[in-house]
Amino acid sequence: MDLCSLSITEARQRLGRREISSVELTQAVLRRIQDVDERVHAYITVTEETALAAAERADRLLSEGVDAPLLGVPIAVKDNICTRDAPTTCASRMLTDFRPAYDATVVGKLRDAGAVIVGKTNLDEFAMGSSTEFSAFGPTRNPYDLDRVPGGSSGGSAAAVAAGEALGALGSDTGGSIRLPASFCGVVGLKPTYGRVSRYGLVAYASSLDQIGPFAGDVQGCAELLSVIAGHDPMDATSLDWPVGDYAASLSTDVKGLRIGVPDEYFGAGLDPAVESVVRSAIRQLESAGAEVLPVSLPHTKYALAAYYVIAPAEASANLSRYDGVKYGLSEDGADIWEAFAATRGKGFGIEVKRRIMIGTYALSAGYYDAYYLKAQRARTLIKQDFDRAFEKVDLLAGPTAPTVAFKIGEKMADPVSMYLTDIFTVTVNTAGLPALVVPCGLAHAMPVGLQLIGPAGSEGRLLNAGYAYEQLTAQAEWRACRPLMTAENAEIAEEN
Ligand code: GLN
Predict the structure, then answer these.
(1) 365 tagged catalytic
(2) Ligand 1 centre from 307 Cα, in Å?
(3) Which residue of the set 92, 157, 177, 227 is catalytic?
(4) Which of 18, 57, 213, 427 is most buried by a 10 A CB count?
(5) Which residue in 21, 92, 131, 153 is the catalytic one?
(6) How far is CA 319 from CA 175, 267, 337, 338, 364, in A?
(7) pLDDT in tens for each of the 497 residues of the chain?
(8) Which of 92, 128, 311 to mutate to test the pocket of ligand 1 (most atoms within 8 A of CB)?
(9) Which residues line ligand 1 (CB under 6 A)?
(10) CA 370, 373, 378, 382 torsion-angle sign
């Protein structure tokens, strides 16, 4: 049995029946990391020692009959989420030696639920990027094709789950950073409603857009993780005081009468026809299971990318001003304070982060504020109103996650705008604060494609249900047999032993 291919639910059941121990499962995952991570590079830090200690503790609790939602299950955490027992680098030279004094709220919740945290995953520096190539520690590679990117910025988390280097993972999504890697790596990813999950301890990129969410091999796993991490947190003033459902227990395959809107604007120029055909056939499958499919229009979509790439850098430029070489992180000397600032920030930040700081600072400066920032905020309102209008007619929206499948490593590095265009179908969701789920729905050019389901605020349960229904409908589909390189390779080795 290949323990690394277990879903979170299967692992929980086997642990609960004591057929496997958490130490065995954790060791299997650590071995997989050892075998494949030199090639995939999903992790920045592997926390072997603390993981094994947590696994031993979980086994003790299991033997005492204690039950907790993730007791003994190996989970990875994106390296922009604070952990008190491991570095939190944000894939930046600025924070290479940074050890937070506290756990993020979500990390505390994972620990309380009994999860075994196996390590911190790679990302684009400070979560700015769409490919995980802008990491100070080198790129992550797509487990389906090592010459391709895993998507970004949570590429490490998605790749880890795809390659069996964790059973689930946390990521963050400011403009698509959970959904894009989920789509590119063939795993399930959920961006919750803004405020659903506490941001306390998430290193801020663009605070009005950032949201933490889960990755897993299947919808149920994502649902289980969401129930653990969601909920009100007094430490995050933007966190919502809404009840948290038992998302996994309430999953159903019933989509009869569910009204699914298909936005015209998500199927226009730039969308690879091979991706389009896979996504359209997924929507048809939901229709044949009883959903009602309707065309809708989100006319202001055309402004979303431009608005996002003003608002996000503007907030980033303010958030990143804290890295001054004085408080924490990298600290370079200089003849005076200005030289020390310049030396620290010049050396500490990589090229994309510097680009964002410059764009953001420009957009916020006196004289340009109205022309850029204020205008972008107006566009944001219009985009939000498009969604509000659509959700008067439909229960959720379905469409592609990205215009293409995973692209080649290096392909878009010289052209920032072509990289930004990857986010065209994802940034709208953050701009409006909505939840969205990505589920694998087939292959194009032999690479995974993700179906994006978008719902109104607070509709995580509905999205997970629709995703689960789709997963069940296609459980036997041929494309599901296509596995990432390492998983296939290692499953064979595991079988031989
Ligand atoms: N690719 C987008 C950006 O670079 C989104 C990143 C994210 O969601 N963190 O801003």
Answers:
(1) no
(2) 13
(3) 177
(4) 213
(5) 153
(6) 16, 35, 20, 19, 13
(7) 899 999 999 999 999 999 999 999 999 999 999 999 999 999 999 999 999 999 999 999 999 999 999 999 999 999 999 999 999 999 999 999 999 999 999 999 999 999 999 999 999 999 999 999 999 999 999 999 999 999 999 999 999 999 999 999 999 999 999 999 999 999 999 999 999 999 999 999 999 999 999 999 999 999 999 999 999 999 999 999 999 999 999 999 999 999 999 999 999 889 999 999 999 999 999 999 999 999 999 999 999 999 999 999 999 999 999 999 998 899 999 999 999 999 999 999 999 999 999 999 999 998 999 999 999 999 999 999 999 999 999 999 999 999 999 999 999 999 999 999 999 999 999 999 999 999 999 999 999 999 999 999 999 999 999 999 999 999 999 999 988 976 656 556 555 54
(8) 128
(9) 127-130, 153, 172-177, 205, 312, 423
(10) positive
Q: Which two tokens stand for residue 98?
A: 């940074």
